[in-house]
């Protein structure tokens, strides 16, 4: 089915180009896509970038890819340059949720459709983007909390939790926190004693966990990290403090990257909530459909699961990222 629609898309693009449809910036009948990526901050992001580049490959696509080093102003600059180049479609993963209305109005005025992938935006006018494909981050936060509740079965309170949050203002950080609090709040044994952003990186995760340990000493029962990279950094800090990660402090994180499976196999991480970065093929199909003027769903949710320590060894060889 995908093959046929791919050929159809090429034919119609050729026809459009043929009748001087003014295909913006497309070389021949390929679809020129401007893609602005958040950065290269985590294993998840590396896998996501690989999946996007593999899916938006020549000759069908002419991909212009930019890495924003996790800065919104760099993404806005990239989007403006894609508009100036007259690309056919713009796709991007917005580093934070707000501050996009102006540049997306400019894309709309230039007649360039926008596809959101991975993270969402908060905008006044829904027509500023055609579709959003990404995870349900609130559900990921709920899954992490459900694991903590299950893991704390029979333990008396207070159970003291520290939280390493993702990038300030980003959809995954806002929504994972919301989902986690919604479920953990149902059981008053749990207390979130400290929350701070580790910006989704190993280095910052380690640094913030060192501060938590200094402030709370051995008084931390659970670490909830919004991504595996921060959890892996925190694990180093916990070991350097002479404590056993996964035992003295139970740890749950999100993404399900290879590093998490290795940490679970070593008994240092207890669970990871899967967050699938391999969005490339679905993104490519959405771009084909949008470019060809076909209807697309406003929201495409990516299916994901949860992995625990006892499954790590068996699952490791199957991991694609
Ligand atoms: C989630 C993605 C997050 C990952 C982090 O879809 O936006 O950003 O959870 C990454 O690892 O940095
Ligand atoms: Zn996800």
Automatic annotation (TrEMBL):
Keyword set includes Signal: yes
Annotated InterPro entries: Peripla_BP_I, SBP_2_dom
Highest taxon in the source lineage: Bacteria
Domain Periplasmic binding protein, chain residue ranges per copy: 33-277
GO process annotations (BP): transmembrane transport
Compartments it resides in: Cell envelope
GO MF annotation: an example: carbohydrate binding
Keyword Signal annotated: yes
One matching Pfam family: Peripla_BP_4
Gene3D superfamilies: 3.40.50.2300
PROSITE patterns: PROKAR_LIPOPROTEIN (PS51257)
GO cellular component term of the entry, any: cell envelope
Signal peptide location: 1-19
Alphabetized UniProt keyword annotations: Signal
Family stated for the protein in its record: Belongs to the bacterial solute-binding protein 2 family.
Protein name: ABC transporter substrate-binding protein
């Amino acid at each position: 089915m995908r093959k046929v629609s791919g050929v159809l898309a090429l034919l119609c693009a050729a026809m459009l180009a043929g009748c001087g449809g003014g295909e913006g910036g497309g070389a021949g009948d390929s679809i020129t896509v401007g893609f602005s990526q958040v950065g290269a901050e985590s294993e998840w992001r590396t896998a996501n970038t690989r999946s996007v580049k593999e899916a938006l490959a020549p000759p069908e696509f002419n991909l212009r890819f930019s890495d924003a080093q996790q800065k919104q102003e760099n993404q806005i600059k990239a989007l403006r340059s894609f508009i100036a180049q007259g690309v056919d479609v713009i796709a991007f993963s917005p580093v934070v949720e707000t501050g996009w209305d102006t540049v997306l109005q400019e894309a709309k005025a230039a007649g360039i459709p926008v596809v959101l992938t991975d993270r969402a935006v908060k905008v006044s006018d829904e027509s500023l983007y055609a579709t959003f494909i990404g995870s349900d981050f609130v559900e990921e936060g709920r899954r992490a909390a459900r694991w903590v509740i299950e893991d704390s079965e029979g333990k008396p309170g207070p159970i003291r939790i520290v939280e390493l949050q993702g990038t300030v203002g980003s959809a995954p950080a806002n929504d994972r926190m919301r989902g986690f609090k919604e479920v953990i709040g149902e059981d008053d044994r749990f207390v979130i004693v400290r929350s701070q952003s580790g910006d989704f990186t190993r280095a910052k995760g380690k640094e913030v966990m060192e501060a938590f340990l200094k402030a709370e000493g051995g008084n931390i029962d659970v670490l909830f990290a919004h991504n595996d990279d921060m959890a892996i950094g925190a694990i180093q800090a916990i070991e350097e403090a002479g404590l056993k990660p996964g035992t003295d402090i139970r740890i749950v994180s999100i993404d399900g990257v290879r590093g998490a499976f290795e940490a679970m196999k070593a008994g240092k991480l207890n669970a990871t909530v899967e967050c699938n970065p391999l969005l490339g093929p679905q993104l490519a199909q959405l771009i084909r459909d949008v470019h060809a003027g076909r209807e697309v769903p406003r929201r495409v949710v990516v299916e994901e699961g949860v992995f625990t320590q006892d499954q790590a060894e068996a699952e490791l060889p199957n991991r694609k990222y």
